[in-house]
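User: Sequence recovery, please. Input:
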């Protein structure tokens, strides 16, 4: 979910008002209090509401609608899986979505390529018909033609993140095997051009720049590219690999304070909102410990695998431990209702342990918090 500066949040409110998106405007206040303001959300979710006997039902959700991808990225766990690639049909997605009622926010993501799921736009359109704030994550490598971009803009999801693995063809294509950097950048420029041509405010464009040993020095050229787009940017999320699993260890990198300061300086010159991933902040400040589990707010946004299995959040993905995460799942939404799962003894134990600053075994792979 984009962090966004206060200035950009005000602009977002203006967009919602002028486009008469009043349900999204209402939902944004939930996002602010339970997500954008970390201290407030941790206080409300882990101290205040539990003392009142309120165990808030999740207003946010992430759904892995596909694991189909033709790329074989060297830093992606998908490359090393043995499980079959699957698309979630619209009917199966609707079955999951409808269990949550009117969601405030949803992330349509997963370890796969959105445009290899033939039901993708149908899924997005359904979410928007309910007034849910919708965030998409894709690499922009599989658009068939401009008409797909036009259709995306007509549907009008709220945020579109584009994952980027470098700022040159050599680096990006060298990590993301099968992708074509020239195609990706062309699709980004076409998106910007068509958005202006169609006079659309949504989706707001965001980027997720993955820092590896190979792409580390190219982030400054990437900021040049973003500046050249001359368009509204919600956020650039700069993040190193969250999990340096054994097959991808040669690509993992730590970000020091000098490097982060340089990124922030150049981003500020271009007035590009930039967020450094939480794990990188820890590296930069040299913290001996991660923030405590009692500070966790991510559990209010469950992650649902394409198989229907529920995980407490998305943070433990990308560690190439899919089987373990599914084994530890508190439930499966193709076999159970989310309210049965959420209020089950197993899920209650997870939340109770987090609030007491203890690590449930389901969260053992967490890259952001510790006891």
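Assistant: Recovered sequence (371 residues):
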């Amino acid at each position: 979910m984009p962090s966004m500066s206060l200035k950009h949040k005000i602009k977002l409110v203006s967009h919602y008002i002028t486009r008469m998106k009043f349900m999204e405007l209402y939902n944004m206040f939930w996002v602010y209090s339970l997500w954008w303001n970390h201290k407030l959300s941790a206080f409300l979710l882990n101290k205040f509401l539990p003392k009142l006997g309120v165990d808030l039902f999740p207003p946010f959700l992430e759904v892995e609608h596909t694991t189909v991808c033709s790329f074989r990225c060297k830093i992606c766990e998908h490359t090393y899986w043995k499980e079959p690639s699957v698309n979630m049909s619209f009917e199966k997605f609707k079955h999951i979505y409808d269990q949550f009622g009117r969601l405030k926010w949803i992330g349509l993501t997963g370890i796969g390529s959105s445009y290899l799921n033939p039901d993708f736009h149908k899924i997005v359109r359904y979410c928007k018909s309910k007034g849910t704030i919708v965030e998409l994550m894709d690499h922009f490598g599989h658009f068939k033609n401009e008409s797909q971009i036009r259709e995306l803009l007509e549907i009008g999801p709220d945020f579109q993140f584009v994952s980027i693995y470098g700022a040159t063809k050599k680096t990006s294509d060298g990590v993301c095997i099968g992708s074509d950097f020239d195609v990706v950048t062309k699709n980004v420029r076409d998106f910007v051009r068509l958005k202006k041509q169609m006079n659309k405010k949504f989706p707001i464009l965001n980027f997720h720049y993955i820092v590896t040993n190979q792409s580390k020095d190219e982030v400054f050229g990437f900021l040049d590219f973003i500046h050249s787009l001359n368009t509204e940017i919600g956020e650039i999320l700069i993040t190193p690999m969250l999990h340096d699993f054994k097959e991808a260890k040669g690509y993992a990198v730590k970000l020091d304070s000098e490097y982060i300061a340089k990124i922030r300086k150049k981003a500020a010159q271009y007035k590009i909102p930039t967020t450094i991933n939480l794990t990188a902040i820890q590296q930069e400040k040299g913290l001996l410990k991660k923030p405590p589990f009692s500070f966790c707010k991510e559990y209010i946004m469950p992650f649902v695998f394409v198989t229907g299995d529920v995980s407490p959040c998305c943070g433990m993905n990308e560690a190439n431990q899919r089987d373990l995460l599914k084994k530890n799942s508190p439930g499966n939404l193709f076999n159970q209702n989310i309210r049965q799962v959420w209020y089950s003894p197993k899920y209650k134990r997870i939340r109770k342990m987090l609030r007491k600053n203890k690590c449930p075994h389901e969260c053992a792979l967490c890259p952001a918090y510790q006891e």
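The longest strand covers residues 204-211.
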